[in-house]
Every structure is written in structure tokens, then in C-alpha cells.
Write a structure and sequence with these properties.
Layout: E1 2-4, E2 11-19, E3 38-43, E4 50-51, H1 60-66, H2 72-75, H3 82-95, E5 103-107, H4 113-120, E6 125-129, E7 143-149, H5 160-168, E8 169-178, H6 186-189, E9 204-205, H7 208-217, E10 221-224, E11 229-233, H8 266-286, E12 292-295, H9 304-311, E13 316-320, H10 324-337, E14 342-345, E15 348-349, E16 354-358, E17 378-383, E18 395-398, H11 404-409, H12 412-418, E19 421-425, H13 432-441, E20 444-455, E21 458-467
Parallel strand pairs: 5-6, 5-7, 7-8, 12-13, 12-18, 13-14, 15-17, 18-19
Antiparallel strand pairs: 1-2, 2-3, 3-4, 4-9, 8-11, 10-11, 16-17, 19-21, 20-21
């Protein structure tokens, strides 16, 4: 079974099928598990373009009914707030000196949220056009900058935006757009890749080669800042000349720009695995096969995935990760592993349900902190373990960059009721009593677990905690004597 490639015309072979319910927010849906449609994808051997023709014949009304409906924010929670805020921050970085002189068009921007945020930042001449959501009203004139955020992957006709840019962009103008290109191991990932998401309407998934071919077809030059952010232009305008160095093959990523997936390189994975190993060794010996574990701030899965493997297929590991880039890397790692027993949630754990600010720019760890200085924050969901109303739990692992105490407070009801083991990072002496006291009050025995490979720069402390009624032997760790005790 083949299809003609929509980018280069070559014969594209069948790549695999995905359940229509699979979304970027829930990338682990197994084909056929929802009882819905099965969506076939094809991949071109020449340009690498990966696509489905499943939506090609759908009318705008059906697309609105089946995909871009009231449930869309559940499958793309960044659409309404976080993504427009990130993009506005990006344009502010790139063109701060030209806010009053350049005309900007947000093409395919949905609700107009980006336009509102740009105006709040001082951009004067900004407009929105979204023919994909029924907004076909014409805009007047041509534009210096056209912004197109997370649209290319939705296009049944993959060059539709570039065709529009030819008409709407000035000869000396620039199109800045985002779409995630395929990872190097896309063949191994298969249809489990998190960005291959029919429920989101993701039917056109590119390589740098396929994007370059489309740009050339329309007489445009093409360059990429990183795996997610790209640009196209006919003649690069003077106000954007500083971008040329980043839009060349092999150029460095622009620091702090959305899409810089530095957390997913092999060096980072190796470092994370080395830090997780002493923790994994301890937990593997103390948690029963088939157990249930929760990990806060799971990062790229260096502990969650091997722990899930060690506990067996009947186990469940729930991995929480609030940071934008780390969660994507976590989703990709889970997809690559094929682990059926790892559930991932993009959220933080705290003492109450709600939301908090997470600075996205340059953050590769899940460091939630108050907004400071010039941070451009993003909202992230906060959940409590108590709010999950669990009936069985064997392990809570908390490493929340100094916010372990609120996460523990939101779990104390579950700890009292289900008596799980706990492994808690405890790097700050002034906050240590807030971790030790409530657990000792609940009848737990605590030991210091010093993991020398935990962080660069030397050893750091963790608390290993077991209910006093549990009979254990072979724990060769120093005991915690009281709330004011410290390990060094």
C-alpha cells in the first residue's frame, strides 16, 4: 500500500496506523484501544515526509465537529494560553527594536490570543488571519513578518501556508513558523512518536528536507533554528539580518527559543541515567514486583523507565513532569521503550490542586519557582497525590527542586492510609524538618540515602522512608534521628 508523496511526488510506503484518539497530550493510546478509527500514515523514502490522507476529504464543518471542537483544549492544552505567550516572548526577543515599524500577521492563530499579547508588549501593527477556523476575512496589504505557530502539521495540503505567504509577505519579509520535525529514530519510534497525533489533526509531519523542498517550490529560502522553529524568506529584510547566522545548516540553536530539545541528547540521557542508578539500586530491592509507584519531576524518564522494567509488566509507574521540553522528551522515551506500564502526566505535585508558573525559556529541569525579573512564565497544572484517591500505592518518589514539602503535604492522607515507601530528595537543611517531622509523626522510620552521583559537584541527601510496622532487613544506611538531624 503506497501513496504519492505530497512534497516530492515519490511513492510513499505505508508507515503504520494510529488510533484516532491518540493525541500529543496522550501519546500512549494503543491502536484500536479506543474503538475509534484507525488512521494510516505513509512515509516518503526520498524526502522523509510522513503523512496521512485520512482527513483529505473532510469538510471544514466536519473538521470543526470532530477535531477542533470544545474538547480540543484537552488534547492541546497549550493552544489557548501557553503557546501564544511563548511566541510573543520569542518575537519580543527577535524584533524588540522594531515594534513600531514592522507589520506582523499571525496566520492560523485561532482565537487571536497572540495578537493580544503582542499588542500588550508594544507591537503596533499586528493582525490575525485563520482560514482554518472559519476566519476567511481578507487582510489588507502585505506584511514584514508572518508568524505561523503549530499549523504545518495540520495541513492536508502541506504547502498551503507557503503559498499564502507568497501573496501576503513583502518581498523583503520573513515567515517564522514552528512545527516539530521527525526525530532521528523515527523508524524505531513508529506511530508511537508523541507528535504523530491524529486527534490533534497532525497529518503532515516533516523532515528538514521536506520543508526545504516546499520552500524552494515557492521560491523561498529556508532555514531552521532548531528541531521546532524555522524560517523562510525571499530576500531577508534588514531588521531580520541578525537571524541569518541561525538559519544555516549546522548553526547553533538560539538560546531559550521554543523547540530547543537539548534535554533529549545522548549526553544528557547518560548523565541522568548515572544519577538515577544508585536510587534505582535501593528501590529495586525494597519495592515489590507488580507494585504501584509515583514519581514527581520524572525528567526524561531515567528512573521511571528502568523502575517500571524492574517491577514487571503488572506494575504501574505514574511519572509526573511539568517542564515543557522534559515532558516531550519523557513522552518520546516512553514511546521508544514501548513500556505499557508507564503513565505520564504533564503536571506538578503540590499541596493543593490548581496551577502555578513554570518558566519555559531555557528550563530543562522541572524547577517551579515564583516569577522573577524578566521571566516569561507558562501555566502548569498542579495535582495532589491525595486527590488521586488511590487504592494501592507502594512508592512515592519526590525530587521537586526544593518543593518536596508541599508535594509531601498533598500526599499525607494517602501515606497515612496506604503506607507506601517514600524516597525524597532533601538537599536544603533549612527545609529538612518539614520533611522529617510529618513522616515520623505518622510512624515512619527514616534513613539517609546519600547518592554521590546525584548532582554535579558532589553528594546530596535523600530520605528513604518505610512504615515502622514493616519488617525489613539489610538496610545499610544511617538512621535519621530527628527533625533537626542532618546527614553531614
Amino acid at each position: 500500500m503506497t501513496r504519492r508523496c505530497k512534497c516530492c511526488g515519490d511513492a510513499a510506503a505505508w508507515f503504520g496506523a494510529a488510533d484516532f484518539a491518540k493525541s500529543s497530550a496522550n501519546p500512549t493510546v494503543v491502536p484500536g484501544s479506543s474503538g475509534g478509527w484507525s488512521v494510516d500514515y505513509f512515509r516518503c523514502p526520498s524526502c522523509g515526509f510522513l503523512f496521512s490522507d485520512f482527513l483529505d476529504a473532510w469538510s471544514p464543518e466536519r473538521l470543526q465537529r470532530e477535531i477542533y471542537n470544545d474538547e480540543y483544549l484537552r488534547v492541546d492544552p497549550e493552544f489557548a494560553g501557553e503557546r501564544p505567550e511563548r511566541t510573543a516572548h520569542l518575537l519580543d526577543q527577535l524584533f524588540a527594536a522594531h515594534k513600531t515599524t514592522i507589520r506582523i500577521l499571525d496566520y492560523g492563530g485561532g482565537t487571536g490570543a497572540l495578537v493580544s499579547r503582542l499588542r500588550d508588549r508594544g507591537f503596533v501593527d499586528v493582525h490575525s488571519l485563520d482560514p482554518f477556523h472559519g476566519d476567511a476575512a481578507p487582510v489588507v496589504g502585505r506584511f514584514d513578518v508572518i508568524v505561523c505557530v503549530e499549523v504545518f502539521e495540520h495541513l492536508a495540503r502541506p504547502d498551503a501556508v507557503l503559498a499564502a505567504a507568497n501573496d501576503l509577505m513583502k518581498d523583503e519579509g520573513v515567515l517564522i513558523f514552528s512545527t516539530q520535525v521527525q526525530p532521528y529514530d523515527i523508524v524505531q519510534c513508529g506511530t508511537a512518536w508523541w507528535y504523530l497525533a491524529p486527534r490533534n489533526g497532525h497529518v503532515s509531519l516533516h523532515t528538514l528536507r521536506s520543508l526545504q523542498l516546499l520552500a524552494q517550490r515557492h521560491g523561498l529560502s529556508f532555514g531552521s533554528f532548531n528541531q521546532n522553529l524555522h524560517m523562510a524568506w525571499r530576500r531577508l529584510p534588514a531588521f531580520a539580518a541578525h537571524l541569518a547566522v541561525y538559519a544555516q545548516p549546522g548553526a547553533p540553536s538560539v538560546p531559550g527559543l521554543p523547540g530547543d530539545r537539548s534535554v533529549d541528547d545522548s549526553a544528557t540521557r547518560d548523565a541522568e541515567a548515572a544519577r538515577a542508578e544508585p536510587i534505582l539500586t535501593l528501590l529495586r530491592s525494597m519495592i515489590p514486583t507488580g507494585g504501584v509507584a509515583i514519581e514527581a519531576n520524572a525528567g526524561i524518564g531515567a528512573l521511571a523507565l528502568p523502575l517500571a522494567h524492574a517491577l514487571g509488566d503488572r506494575a504501574t509507574v505514574v511519572a509526573y513532569e511539568p517542564a515543557f521540553d522534559a515532558f516531550r522528551s519523557l513522552a518520546a522515551a516512553v514511546a521508544r521503550s514501548g513500556a505499557p506500564n508507564v503513565a505520564i502526566r504533564r503536571a506538578a505535585l503540590g499541596d493543593r490542586w490548581g496551577s502555578t508558573w513554570l518558566p519555559p525559556a531555557g528550563e530543562t529541569s522541572a524547577c517551579i519557582r515564583p516569577v522573577q525579573g524578566d521571566d516569561t512564565p507558562a501555566r502548569v497544572r498542579v495535582e495532589t497525590i491525595d486527590g488521586l484517591d488511590l487504592t494501592h500505592l507502594d512508592l512515592i518518589r519526590l525530587d521537586a527542586d526544593g518543593l518536596e514539602a508541599p508535594a509531601l503535604e498533598g500526599a499525607l492522607g494517602t501515606v497515612r492510609r496506604l503506607r507506601p515507601a517514600l524516597h525524597i530528595a532533601n538537599r536544603r537543611r533549612e527545609r529538612s524538618p518539614d520533611l522529617i517531622r510529618p513522616l515520623q509523626d505518622l510512624g515512619y522510620r527514616l534513613w539517609w540515602h546519600i547518592a554521590s552521583a546525584d548532582r554535579p559537584g558532589g553528594a546530596s541527601a535523600h530520605l528513604f522512608c518505610l512504615p515502622s510496622e514493616r519488617a525489613v532487613t539489610g538496610i545499610d544506611l544511617p538512621a535519621v534521628t530527628g527533625p533537626q538531624a542532618w546527614w553531614s
